[in-house]
Amino acid sequence: MYSYMDNRGVKGRDGYGMVALKVEDIKQFTSGLFIGSLFDKFQVREAEIVTFNAFHMDGRIRPGYYTKEETEEKGIGEYSVWESVKPVCFSLIKGKRLPGSFQIVLQLGKKQLESFLAGRQVPVRADQIGGMYLNIRYENGELYCVTGTSVNFFTLDKSLDMEWDEAMKEFFRKKGIPFTM
């Protein structure tokens, strides 16, 4: 199998894992993404929205912006949650014209990751996982969601990748998001 790592640290392979889900109802999906609460608890690694300009956001929380008390009280981690970045992104795309494109890279937060692992028979600990991602990309009138994982060690075991792929497909089904592979 061919394996590679993209510039965000998202690992991909030919033949295993990393599924591309083509969203069939773009309006429904984007409404859930930008107006609803579909992905609110996911963390934002990065976002890029292209309208009359290209707007790029790094999801990292800037050190010192929040006080230690705020960080502990609100459970603020290394990355912003989608719920806090979503209004800014929505303000960039709302209007009469569709955006030229957008790409949003989401990842599971620490608590979500631990919960995900607790319900599955995967031989990987949370501290061995660099990230579990969902790459959302809209371009040329099509919207794709691509899964990805990153681990901090070498392994030939693909059970984590397969579990993540299946979990995201099930998430889409439960939320009523029509997709094809």
Description:
The chain has a seven-stranded antiparallel sheet, with helices on one face. The protein has a two-stranded antiparallel sheet with strand order 1-2. 29% of the residues lie in helices and 29% in strands. It has helices spanning 26-34, 68-74, 82-93, 110-118, 159-174, and strands at 3-5, 11-13, 20-23, 43-50, 54-58, 101-107, 129-139, 142-151, 179-180. The protein contains five helices and nine strands. A hairpin with a 5-residue loop joins β1 and β2 (11-13). It is globular and about 50 Å long.
Chain-wise SSE layout:
Blueprint: E1 3-5, E2 11-13, E3 20-23, H1 26-34, E4 43-50, E5 54-58, H2 68-74, H3 82-93, E6 101-107, H4 110-118, E7 129-139, E8 142-151, H5 159-174, E9 179-180
Antiparallel strand pairs: 1-2, 3-8, 3-9, 4-5, 4-6, 6-7, 7-8
Q: What's the short story on this structure?
A:
The protein is α+β, with helices and mostly antiparallel strands.
Number of strands: 9
pLDDT averaged over residues: 90
The chain-level structural class is alpha+beta
Termini Cα gap: 20 Å
Counting DSSP H or I runs of 4 or more residues, the number of helices is: 5
* CA-based gyration radius: 17 Å
Query: Low-confidence parts lasting 5 or more residues at pLDDT below 50?
Result: 1-16
Give the proportion of residues in helices: 25-40%
Strand content: 25-35%
Elements, N to C (H/E): EEEHEEHHEHEEHE
Largest pleated sheet: 7 strands, antiparallel
General form: globular
Strand sequence of the main sheet, in spatial order?
A: 5-4-6-7-8-3-9
